[in-house]
Amino acid sequence: MLEKIREGSQGPVAKVILGAVILSFALAGIGSYLGQTTEQPVAEVNGIKISQTEFSRAFQNERSRLEQQFGEYFTQIAADPTYMAQIRQGVIDRLVQQELQSQLAAELGLRVSDESVRKTILELPYFKIGDKFNNDRYLQVIRQMNFQPDAFREYLRDDMTRSQLVSAVAGTDFALPNELKSAIALQQQTRSIDYLVIDKQAMQADVEVTEQEVADYYELNAGQFLSPELISVNYIELNADDIDVASVSEDDVKAYYEQSKAQYVEPEKRRVSHILIDNSEDDDAAKAKAESLLAQLNAGADFAELAETSSDDIVSAEMGGDLEWIERDVMEPAFEDAAFALQNKGDYSDVVASEFGYHIIKLTDLQTQQVKPFDEVKADLRAELEQAEKVDAFYEKQTEMGALAFEISDRLDDAAEVAGVEVQSTSLLALSALPEPLNNPAVVTALSSVELLEDKVNSEVIELGNEHVIVVRVNEHQPAATKALSEVSEQIKTRLMNEKASDLAKEKARTLFAQVKEGKSLNDVAAEQSLNVRQESQLTRESFAVSPAIVTQVFKMAHPSDAAVYDMVNLNNGDAAIVALKAVNDAPVSDNIEPQMKQNITMAQAQKNYTVFIESLKQQAELNVPKAAQVAE
């Protein structure tokens, strides 16, 4: 079994699954390190506790993903406690599933090698600049996620190990040729049917709806007859990008360049290599090893060779310890001080202690500080100056506009005049149908407030974005209200007539179906009732010529033997039908099955088996999972 698992983990499905794991990790982020906690675990799996810390990290990942997906509207979505409870429960379920997978992987002895982890790190696009792995970028990214290199490698190893297990179940699944043929035969199978439909419209002549029934329905279902809340809005919008300012002179740009020249200094860069000795297990032994390596360097040993054979930084070791270019305030302080103290290319440091262990650092290249010339940056400087003037004008206008909108709160004309914009208006619209920029959540919230709806005052200045604001007022408001009975009586009468007609159609179908079951032919029943028997000799599962309810039921019916098999079906539109299944027609299947069809069937089978596999793990495990509502965010 282990051999099959390891072989399966190298296949394309395994790579796809691993890619999905890495992608979700990269998009969602890791969240803040929360430390140890004395709180109760969110779940317990075979005695292993899933802590609030793990849950908080995973929950923040999910929140980040949803915020990226829904943007500013996530605030409104997150206000629904039922929705957020479902999200929390989903996070707990995934953590439990991951723990079950990790435990089984450990039991089977699955483990991803250091070489595989290193190769994955080097191939991940998030650690590359251009098409090349960049160690600075790698260290920067994992530190932003509050990981040290060792911890990140173990995190990645755990995910890759779980992926081995997933690929062993899903990636090694296959369908035998006879299974493929059977599945395709079922998909392409057709059925021959006769059927008649009892149309509810034909029954309406026998239906009567009284005014009292209409009134009673109206009283019991008044909530169905609400007219939507409508609102008409006046507003003024101010955006810095729309403000016209005088052009900036060449002299102004040059003066600004001289004032801000420090911003255009390209700082000193150094390219360094290092040898790292991990001290997490035995500090004294690590220090002694580092000093021994330094002695070998002093005796003439090659730095790159020592790094490749002895460094515990498995990523840079492959490249002779190379960390590429570094700048100030990027690396760990002790490392950085030692690296920038080296004077000449080829110099290397003494043993340097840092939070990661002991280093020996070599300076391999040096780029001195440089200043970008004026001609290279003047276009950017001009744009900055023009934007600065627009922003200054924007905030001046915003202040005056906000003050007047507050002082003269019953109209917007004065505020619009000082802002240099026009008052804009909408017709009566539902709150959910407001156009831009009024469909902003903050604007909708303001328009729903008591002050604007009842007092008819101007809103405060509402920020829509950077240097982009709006002030709104309600011009006209029509609250949601129950429509009068006179407005909806015909609608109710039609609905009641349809319901009664549908009941009569179903009752008639049951009566006729009983006659068919007693031996009367479907044609005779149809002739007596002046109904038409319809035929489908090659009905497929994807047929659109017949009601979906009939298609679904026909492919559930037992195969006929000597006589047709009958059933009654209630249709989605309120009609009823009686169906006679006369024959099941098996489709011939070629030995040359299309690759895409093979893949679709195999993947469907793999997904089904994987779901069964996870459920089996849960049934065999000792699980203690509280309700999501009891779990803190």
UniProtKB/TrEMBL annotation:
Locate the PpiC domain: which residues?
A: 267-365
What is the first-listed, main subcellular location in coarse terms?
membrane
TM regions (residue ranges)? 12-34
Q: Which GO terms describe its molecular function?
A: isomerase activity
Under the heading PROSITE patterns, the entry gives: PPIC_PPIASE_2
**What are the record keywords, sorted?**
Cell inner membrane, Cell membrane, Chaperone, Isomerase, Membrane, Rotamase, Transmembrane, Transmembrane helix
Membrane topology, record value: Single-pass type II membrane protein
Q: Which Gene3D superfamilies match?
A: 3.10.50.40, Porin chaperone SurA, peptide-binding domain (1.10.4030.10)
* Cross-referenced Pfam families: Rotamase_3, SurA_N_3
* Cell compartments where the protein resides: Cell inner membrane
Q: Which InterPro entries is this protein grouped with?
A: PPIase_dom_sf, PPIase_PpiC, PpiD_chaperone, Trigger_fact/SurA_dom_sf
What protein family is recorded? Belongs to the PpiD chaperone family.
State what protein this is by name: Periplasmic chaperone PpiD
